Amino acid sequence: MKQIIIISHEPLTIRTKKIFLIEDFIHQGFSLQYWDMSQYFHPGIKLSDELNKEEYVKKIDSLNDIKLHLNKINTSKVLFIVEVFNNKWKNRHFFKLLKENKCFVIQIELYATAMLPIPFTIKLKYSKAITIFNYLKNRILSVAFYIYKKINNFECYDLAFTSNKLTARCKNVIPINHPD
Question: Which pLDDT tens digits describe the chain residue by residue (180 residues)?
Fold first, then answer.
């Protein structure tokens, strides 16, 4: 595989360009594309430090757009690095589409250590009713997505790199020491 496609839920910034080692991959001879799906996942998002002028950035605003792009390439010769939350109910069609197109998908969990594992009882003690409602709603949707994956017989990722020892996002996990 000499082609890498990074699919992200956020626009390319200087920081994400550095984290994904984009310049290094290009200098090593990889054909690289960054598929910015921020407007699909977060309509209206605009970051002040977006890098829109890079020739390898493609703006993708819908699942139909991604279908068109996937149909133009031989997915068996591409490594897909996906930075999209895999436990969100609303993302189920996106991940199913990648699996239907036989994409080899890896995850580099960038923010695995960004939150401390706080017990639910402590969260409950300091939470407001709306926060508790949102927490329960998100848990129900996470379970629904888990069931959806089982029924449709797919995993979101073929391989995951993570510094989080508490959860495994797929069967093949490679532990990393992330700078955050």
Answer: 589 999 998 999 998 898 888 999 999 999 999 999 999 888 888 888 788 788 999 999 999 999 999 999 999 999 998 888 766 777 888 888 998 999 998 887 765 555 555 666 666 566 666 666 777 777 777 777 777 778 887 776 666 667 665 555 556 666 666 554
Q: What angle do CA 64, 138, 120 make, to 5 degrees?
A: 150
- Using DSSP bridges, classify how beta strands 78-83 and 57-59 pair: parallel, antiparallel or unpaired: unpaired
Instruction: Please tell me what DSSP assigns to residue 173.
Output: E
Residue 90 DSSP one-character state: G
Please state the pTM of the whole predicted model.
0.71
Residue 145 to residue 73: CA distance in whole angstroms: 28
Q: Which long-range contacts (CB under 8 A, 24 or more apart) does 62-71 make?
A: 63/93, 63/94, 63/97, 65/40, 66/7, 66/35, 66/37, 66/94, 66/97, 67/97, 69/35, 70/97, 70/98, 70/101, 70/103
The strand pairing partners of 23, in sequence order, are none
